[in-house]
């Protein structure tokens, strides 16, 4: 099979971990070097950016991208995981205010109060490590530990169309909200949903979660694992493969001449022409293209010495 290098946008199915998806992609395309740029919970679906071949070296430049989600937040009860997979927890405040008395205006005001830069306590059922141990491993053994808050950015937290009939009470006595969220990397949507429930005094958890965008990668361009299998069988994966250069299109670019390209391949720092009509911030990642227009390396700008250091070289 022809070597594959680049990015694939996979529509992750529910019930699979992100690691499961990576393993299946590895098997389908026959490439050992496969990784992803941001974990999705097993119950969640949607955009999972998968890097293959030499492009796996680029994960560090994509993992911090902004994310967008569509979710169903179920008001009326909490769970120990913050999502639909968990065990229901009876909290004293969960039914303190009847769902019937909630108004859309109250919900929108509570959502607005959670926008901007906020602090979140990472949930116990998460892959975040504390003292070298993943929190979910501790949680499964019934252990709790102190977790430092993290600062995240909530750029949008809106109601989606279809909430006009709220509250429509489910058979279990709860009510669902369909929402859209745009947030920084590292945001826990489950925690955001729980915080909304607390502000409304009704308790809540995430019933459905779908990532619709990760950085520049949108769900409209995603393919299923089954579709990937069909493409692999016909040796047509290139149709959906995003080149390493295109995957990093959000980064500035510099074109190298022949001598500069040779130096970049050997990790030689490149002196930046001070007459260039731009100014890069310190440690700015920069795409370094060869004469053929392909991405050769990603450099990191040293603003003090005015040098571009080839931090990640794709061809060696």
Structure write-up:
This protein has 316 residues and is an alpha+beta fold. It has three domains: 6-65 and 216-246, Pseudouridine synthase; 67-210, Pseudouridine synthase (2-Layer Sandwich), CATH 3.30.2350.10; 251-313, PUA domain (Archaeosine Trna-guanine Transglycosylase, Chain: A, domain 4, Roll). It contains seven helices and 18 strands. The protein has helices spanning 18-29, 104-113, 135-140, 189-200, 225-233, 244-247, 258-265; strands at 6-12, 34-36, 45-52, 67-75, 78-79, 88-89, 116-120, 129-130, 133-134, 150-159, 175-183, 204-214, 217-218, 253-255, 270-271, 285-289, 295-302, 307-313. The strands form four sheets. Strands 1, 2, 3, 4, 7, 10, 11, 12 and 13 form a nine-stranded mixed sheet that branches. Strands 14-16-17-18-15 form a five-stranded mixed sheet. A two-stranded antiparallel sheet has the order 5-6. Helix 1 packs parallel to helix 5 (225-233). It starts with 5 loop residues before the first strand and ends with a strand.
């Amino acid at each position: 099979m022809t070597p594959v290098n680049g990015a694939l946008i996979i529509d992750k199915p529910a019930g699979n971990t992100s690691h499961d998806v990576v393993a299946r992609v590895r098997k389908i395309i026959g490439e050992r070097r496969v990784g992803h740029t941001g974990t999705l919970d097993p119950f969640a679906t949607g955009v999972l950016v998968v890097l293959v071949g030499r492009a796996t070296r680029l994960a560090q430049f994509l993992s911090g991208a902004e994310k967008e989600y569509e979710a169903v937040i179920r008001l009326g009860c909490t769970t120990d995981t913050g999502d639909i997979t968990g065990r229901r927890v009876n909290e004293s405040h969960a039914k303190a205010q009847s769902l019937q008395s909630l108004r859309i205006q109250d919900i929108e005001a509570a959502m607005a109060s959670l926008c901007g830069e906020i602090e979140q306590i990472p949930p116990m059922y998460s892959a975040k490590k504390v003292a070298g141990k993943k929190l979910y491993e501790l949680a499964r053994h019934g252990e709790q530990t102190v977790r430092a808050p993290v600062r995240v950015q909530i750029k949008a937290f809106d109601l989606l169309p279809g909430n006009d009939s709220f509250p429509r009470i489910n058979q279990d006595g709860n009510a669902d909200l369909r929402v859209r969220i745009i947030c920084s990397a590292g945001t826990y949507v489950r925690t955001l949903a729980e915080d909304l429930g607390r502000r409304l005094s009704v308790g809540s958890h995430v019933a459905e979660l779908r990532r619709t965008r990760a950085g520049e990668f949108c769900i409209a361009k995603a393919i299923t694992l089954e579709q990937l299998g069909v493409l692999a069988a016909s040796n047509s994966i290139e149709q959906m493969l995003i080149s390493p250069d295109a995957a990093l299109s959000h980064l500035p670019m510099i074109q190298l001449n022949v001598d500069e390209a040779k130096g970049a391949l050997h990790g030689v720092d490149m002196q930046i022409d001070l007459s260039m009509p731009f100014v890069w911030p310190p440690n700015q990642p920069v795409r370094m293209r060869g004469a053929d227009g392909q991405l050769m390396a990603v450099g990191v700008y040293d603003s003090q010495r005015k040098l571009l250091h080839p931090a990640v070289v794709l061809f060696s």
